[in-house]
Amino acid sequence: MSALTLTLAEGVAEIALDDGKVNALSEQMLEALLAAIDQARAAEAALLIYGRAGVLSAGYDRRLIAAGGPACDAMRAAGDRLTLALLDYPAPVVIASTGHAMAKAAFMLLLADYRIGAAGAFNIALNEVAIGMTMPDAAMPQARRLAPQWLNRCALQAQVLDPQQALEAGFYDELATGGELLERARVKVRELAALDRKAYRETRLLLNAPLRADVMAALTGVRG
Which PANTHER family does the UniProt entry name for this protein (predicted)? Predict the structure, then answer.
């Protein structure tokens, strides 16, 4: 079974992550996700990303983080490319968080235009500090998209949030029950896709430009 499937229909691309486990964002998973996003972009499709029931993703592959070295570096480089691919996407981006969303997966939520979370006993967290990682320079500007009163708790204290707290913090725009989640996300992505595409694309780029500049400065070490 493939860990990722792409479906294109009626101007909407759906990317489903399902490795049968926790959808760890290994280099292989990230490269497959980037390739699917490229295909969706070529089709000029609005984009919906979701995970398997109970989990969007546990974030980067913890085994590679623990091991370090070239494989870990390649994984994180692919993750940085994913950040830019989501920021630069020229059409609406909706993420349906089907459950747990940890670390890199939580950052993905912050890069989407609209985020719907599954109500239930799920964890959402920027848990880098909790697992002994200093928050990467390119991640901090993304974290600042959170509601200011939650930033310290999420980025510095690595507080694990439930879906209602994640809604308040700004990871989600709304919550839905598991049975309604995907249908609600599909309705939303079609609503956004119906907006004037040129105006949406140009406004999206303007909206994301300051964050993109901060991310690029952190990745390249070049400040404007």
Answer: ENOYL-COA HYDRATASE, MITOCHONDRIAL, ENOYL-COA HYDRATASE-RELATED
